[in-house]
């Protein structure tokens, strides 16, 4: 099995307070994992360690077979959190433009997005069921629809891993169901590795292939 994330004896704390103590974990390509646990137990902290937003105080982390300190292929990493959804309704940018912005590293700033890239944008919008909304202003969409667009924005980079931190907060039950349906398809059809943090055990346990529970700093 290809390992995409490996934690070697990782500990982390904020100031003097230990949050995670000596964690060892392996995540394989194609895994779909839910990180669960009570409020404040360290779920977001664990995810932030995985994407180098936080550094361990002890131990080491490998991301896509590279020590995370030397990792530089961030275009292979997708990340969506609950705050992705922060465009005000008057912000004049369309769904298509939001997704295209992710291609800046490939296309270059101020260059016109070529036909090839436009097609890629169309394809990811179709994957998340938002193609027919491509000319709508992002701020005019519901929270659930916006989150799907933010998934598309990450998918257009063709990531190897998609990290999600409480992505369905504030979204109604039907919106959540649709959202999880898309994640399942991405995992099954594209073999995309998905790691999702949620405090909603009852939904997540029905959806993911594996659960990781944080309890007592372990
Ligand atoms: N920047 C910070 N400085 C100090 N303490 C922090 C910081 N961020 C988080 N904490 C504390 O670390 C602990 C773990 O926080 P974290 O956000 O990882 O928990 P969580 O399991 O994701 O919580 P929730 O389910 O409420 O989102 C909490 O006790 C939190 O108060």
From TrEMBL:
Top-level taxon: Bacteria
SUPFAM superfamilies assigned to the protein according to its UniProt record, in alphabetical order: P-loop containing nucleoside triphosphate hydrolases (SSF52540)
Signal peptide: none
Keywords: ATP-binding, Nucleotide-binding, Transport
GO terms, molecular function: ATP binding; ATP hydrolysis activity
InterPro entries (alphabetical): AAA+_ATPase, ABC_transporter-like_ATP-bd, ABC_transporter-like_CS, Metal_Ion_Import_ABC, P-loop_NTPase
Start and end residues of each ABC transporter domain: 5-218
Similarity annotation: Belongs to the ABC transporter superfamily.
Name of the protein: Zinc uptake system ATP-binding protein ZurA
């Amino acid at each position: 099995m290809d390992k995409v994330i490996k934690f070697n004896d990782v500990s982390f704390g904020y100031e003097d307070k230990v949050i995670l103590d000596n964690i060892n974990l392996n995540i394989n390509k194609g895994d779909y994992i839910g990180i669960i646990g009570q409020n404040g137990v360290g779920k977001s902290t664990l995810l932030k360690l995985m994407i180098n937003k936080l550094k361990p105080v002890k131990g080491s982390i490998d991301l896509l077979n590279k020590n995370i300190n030397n990792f530089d292929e961030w275009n292979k990493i997708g990340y969506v959190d609950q705050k992705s959804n922060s465009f005000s309704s008057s912000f004049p940018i369309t769904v298509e433009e939001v997704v295209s912005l992710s291609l800046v590293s490939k296309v270059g700033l101020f260059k016109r997005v070529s036909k090839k890239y436009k097609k890629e944008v169309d394809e990811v919008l179709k994957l998340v069921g938002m193609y027919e909304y491509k000319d709508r202003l992002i701020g005019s969409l519901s929270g659930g629809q916006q989150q799907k667009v933010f998934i598309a924005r990450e998918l257009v980079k063709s990531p190897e891993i998609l990290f999600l931190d409480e992505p369905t907060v504030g979204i109604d039950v039907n919106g959540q169901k649709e959202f999880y349906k898309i994640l399942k398809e991405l995992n099954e059809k594209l073999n995309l590795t998905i790691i999702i943090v949620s405090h909603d055990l009852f939904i997540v346990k029905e959806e993911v292939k594996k659960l990781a529970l944080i309890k007592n700093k372990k």
